[in-house]
Specification:
2 domains; 10% strand; Topoisomerase II, domain 5; alpha+beta; DNA topoisomerase IV subunit A
């Protein structure tokens, strides 16, 4: 009779499936789908910004073809399909998608009516001044660097991020078992609320809302949701806003 004794390094199928699914879920949560609260960026967005900074594409530089930027991102930091990098780059350049665009796009980057962007060989890109603020002093020991996917280069674990981009531009993402949908806010109002909180750390939500009354969407419009409902959403992390 055949001996079916398990090898020392084997696992029962149920334990292996549980462990493999957990590793997959954590990879999606931390490495792809959700932004980091410290700099407000998803990994692909962070890699786009860092790659463009390394290419010398600051706000005052001459823009280069988006295809060149995408090639740099894929080759050094983000070994996925070119569409994943270019679609993220396009979104970061759309002033109707982000309250404060991080990329200055030249050419057809789509419209709010649903028109898609031109192919990457036709468009050009460089960073915006607010993106320069996210990257300022990155080479001065302000953040930790980690090896890229093959160990040939280093990439920042986070950006220095002088601005709270997770509040300014909001965030949207769906991971395994969790999701996020954070609305954007006005820079002046966020700054005023931050100063008020520094002066009075015990300031409650109602007090903060005297400086930051609610979201500020890039498409404009008027928010008709009651202030009490917005405050409840801020306090609970769940709610909706009608525009």
């Amino acid at each position: 009779m055949t001996d079916l004794t398990a090898a020392p390094d084997s696992l029962p199928l149920d334990l292996y499936a549980e462990r493999a699914y957990l590793e997959y879920a954590m990879s999606v949560v931390k490495g792809r789908a959700l932004p980091e609260v410290a700099d407000g960026q998803k990994p692909v967005q962070r890699r786009i910004l860092y790659a463009m900074k390394e290419m010398g594409l600051a706000a005052g530089a001459k823009p280069v073809k988006s295809a060149r930027v995408v090639g740099e991102i894929l080759g050094k930091y983000h070994p996925h399909g070119d569409s994943s990098a270019y679609e993220a780059l396009v979104r970061m350049a759309q002033d109707f998608t982000l309250r404060y665009p991080l990329i200055d796009g030249q050419g057809n980057f789509g419209s709010r009516d649903g028109d898609g962007a031109a192919a990457m060989r036709y468009t050009e890109a460089r960073l915006t001044p607010i993106a320069d603020l996210l990257l300022a002093e990155i080479d001065q020991g302000t953040v930790d660097f980690v090896p890229n996917y093959d160990g040939a280069f280093d990439e920042p674990r986070l950006l220095p991020a002088r601005l709270p981009m997770v509040l300014l531009n909001g965030a949207s993402g769906i991971a395994v078992g969790m999701a996020t949908e954070i609305p954007p806010h006005n820079l002046t109002e966020v700054a005023a609320a931050a100063v008020a909180l520094l002066k009075d750390p015990a300031l409650d939500t109602a007090g903060l809302m005297t400086y930051l009354p609610g979201p500020d969407f890039p498409g404009g419009g008027r928010i008709i949701t009651a202030s009490d409902d917005i405050r409840a959403a801020y306090e609970s992390g769940r709610g909706s806003v009608r525009v």
